Amino acid sequence: MEEGQEGEGKKKSGLMALLIPLVVLTVVGGGGGWAIGTMLSPKVKQAKEAVAAAEAPAGHGEAKKEEGLPHVSTEANGVVALEPITTNLAYPSENWIRVEVALMFNGPPDVKIAEDVHQDILAYLRTVSLQQVEGPRGFQYLKDDLQERVDLRSEGRVSKVMFRTLVIE
Predict the structure, then answer these.
(1) Please, which contacts does 72-79 make with residues 24 or more away whose CB atoms are closer than 8 Å?
(2) Is the pTM of this model over 0.90?
(3) Which DSSP state fits 169?
(4) Does residue 158 sit in helix, strand or coil?
(5) How far is residue 168's CA from residue 22's CA, in Å, rounded to a whole number?
């Protein structure tokens, strides 16, 4: 009978060895979650209030001031976003390309140069075939060709052509 009692004692001590750390870890985890929640709760309330204030209609004649990140294309940083260019490719002519680019000027932006570059890019894209722009190498060639054309057209006033979107359908 001593062996039977000894076996039950081992089972009870093994079960207790498992339950005690489990209870301790549960209490620690719950306390940590409560502490983090308490720290984040004021920030969530402030964010909700800010969203509610932004969605509220502006007063009579008051313009809502736009907050957040500044626009990429501004005269202050010398970047001009061109209008999207949509045209068909030279071959196959059923495929269309849509490109949005921005020009980074050296110094103040020039609207006349931006319009000339826009028309030049449009004319160039009409001569491109689908095989020329396929894959990463084709895209790199397209970027290099457009940068070269922009450099010639702007006489060095544009330092960089930045692609915003490129879609071929």
Answers:
(1) 72/102, 73/102, 75/108, 75/109, 78/104, 78/105, 78/106, 78/107, 78/108, 78/109, 79/103, 79/104, 79/105, 79/109, 79/162
(2) no
(3) -
(4) strand
(5) 58
Which residues is 81 bridged to in the sheet? 102
Name 163's bridge partners: 101
Collect all residues with Cβ–Cβ distance below 8 Å to 64 and sequence separation of at least 6: 54, 58
Residue 132 burial (CB count, 10 A): 14
Per-residue CA distances from 39 to 29, 43, 47, 51, 93 (Å): 16, 8, 14, 20, 60
Q: Which amino acid is at 169?
A: E
Q: Which amino acid makes up residue 164?
A: R
Helix residue ranges per DSSP H, the chain: 2-55, 111-125, 130-133, 135-154
Q: From residue 56, how far is each of 5, 43, 52, 68, 155 by CA, in Å?
A: 74, 20, 6, 17, 48
Q: Please enumerate, as own/partner, the contacts of 18-21 that have beta carbons within 8 Å and a separation of 24 or more.
A: none
- Output the pLDDT for position 6: 59
Q: State both tokens at 152.
A: 């010639």
Average pLDDT, the chain: 82
Q: Burial, 49: exposed, middle or buried (Cβ in 10 Å; 0-12, 13-18, 19+)? A: exposed
| Tens digit of each residue's pLDDT (9 = 90 or more) over 145-167 | 999 999 999 998 999 999 999 99
